[in-house]
Amino acid sequence: MMIHTCVALRPCRPPLISSSKSTLQRPPNCKFSVRNCIRDPNNSQKLVMEVKEKLEKEYYDLPIGENGRDDEDMILWYLKDRRFSVEEAIAKLTKAIKWRQEFGVADLSEDTVKSTAKTGKAYVHDFLDVNDRPVLIVVASKHLPDFDVFYYYYPKRLGDVLFVEAPFVFQPIWQLTKPLLKSYASMVKFCSTETVRKEYFTEETLPISFRD
Domain CRAL-TRIO, which positions (predicted)? Predict the structure, then answer.
């Protein structure tokens, strides 16, 4: 079984789990922006505009709008991921936008997500982990997503990827894949159910599948 934890939502609100009363709430809707993490917003905005202009000239056939070539928040995500290298950000971003087109991300609907959820392949956990991060649980026996999807198309969106009680035969596969992910490989951890219980959740927030 796999557990994906996303980036923390702390910039939007205080912690949802109170240590005194253990009050549990679901995360509210909020727009997390990478702009909150930038130390020099003026310089980063110049780089965003540089990328945006290059994309308009060299990749004018790519879509525009949300998650398109002129989406400044998305551009900033990729600049941050590529340590503000304009050329590297453009290379990775254009690949991601093309993938979104081919995969049909814009056409996904609530019904599509519901039908996928019914298969039991994956689901979003009702509670955050102890670090205030949303949690996606993937049943690897039913669905094992490609690692490079997170590296190329959703950079800086994951906190940890946990492989819980992974079978021994999976280790050689991981060793072959690991070099392709470069620094992102450090997010992947192999752990036991007990580790998940002690380090990532409280008794109240622990997913049912990891209870005794």
Answer: 52-212
